[in-house]
């Protein structure tokens, strides 16, 4: 979770959101200090007949008419959605974790959601969360994510998503964190840096992304990962005057959002910052197709938009196909531990929970 500054704009490393309902977030993050700015409790769906709005009526009762049968979904689908949402919101998380393991698509069908509603809403919306568009992700993970979205608020910190790890690091003792000191390999009694410095340690925790973990711990199981690219465009006028995610039923992009409507400080005065994510890598000519799709989705002239920067995240999320363990042990040998979202679930919750599990296992092994 990183944030860059590019020509006065705040650029998160890939599209990011911060969910206030995650248990680990509640336990370990001082949310007030992050100066959180919420997204609106709605999703706009671009269809062949224009944009349709999917609103959480419990948070925006005045927009409840958006969910009238015949607009986004029929009466049966709305009833199925209500039952699914009520169960996930009210059931204990432990019950959802013990639920039947299947794909998300199968779980939606079992809940009574029609193929038409899946194609119009769930597939375009969930593709941006799971970074896959077949809804093959574990149903248990889906139910936990759906629960968190119903119970929490999606936000962005005022200084970018990088404020979250900075806050975590800020409570550590002085000189704990050493930057720009890459580790080349693990030794029998510590680690060796790329600069040739040996750092002795009784216990070593590899708390990195999946690729780095695999290079330091040969033989470590690493699940397949999802790749995502985010294009950041600059406009002199906002194409959408609200902090709302916009998805596309044709799935030409995962989602797009005017980030400067969520957090005005993401762009200098007089400019709007638009972030649009697509599955896979950036390829020649792909941005042109994205720009064309955005012109339709926003009903705006995008020819004059400036492409500020592009961010591709190769291991953005682990693939979470059923059966999907929600957590894996961190201990992989004497004095050797590993943690990260690739050891749990692809989310901030999963990454923090994996780190907490590693800490508990280390303390237990040390007899404390």
Mean pLDDT: 95
Largest sheet: 4 strands, antiparallel
**Helix and strand pattern:** EEEHEEEHHHHHEHEEEEHEEEHEHEEEH
How far do the termini sit from each other? 31 Å
Q: Could you tell me the number of beta strands?
A: 18
Low-confidence stretches: none
How would you name the oligomeric state of the polypeptide chains in this document? Answer: single chain
Strand content: 25-35%
SSE layout and pairing:
Elements: E1 3-6, E2 9-12, E3 18-19, H1 23-28, E4 36-38, E5 42-47, E6 50-55, H2 75-90, H3 93-97, H4 104-110, H5 115-130, H6 139-151, E7 154-157, H7 163-170, E8 183-187, E9 190-193, E10 198-200, E11 204-207, H8 210-216, E12 225-235, E13 245-248, E14 255-258, H9 259-262, E15 272-279, H10 286-298, E16 306-318, E17 331-333, E18 336-339, H11 348-365
Parallel strand pairs: 5-13, 11-18
Antiparallel strand pairs: 1-2, 3-7, 4-7, 5-6, 8-9, 9-10, 12-15, 12-16, 14-15, 17-18
3D architecture notes:
The chain is of the alpha+beta class. It has three domains: 113 residues, no CATH class; 87 residues, FAD/NAD(P)-binding domain (3-Layer(bba) Sandwich); 87 residues, Polyamine Oxidase, Chain A, domain 2, CATH 3.90.660. The chain contains eleven helices and 18 strands. The strands form six sheets. The protein has a four-stranded antiparallel β-sheet. A three-stranded antiparallel β-sheet has the order 3-7-4, with no helix packed on it. It has a three-stranded mixed β-sheet with strand order 6-5-13, with helices on one face. A hairpin with a 2-residue loop joins strand 8 and strand 9. Helix 2 packs across helix 6.
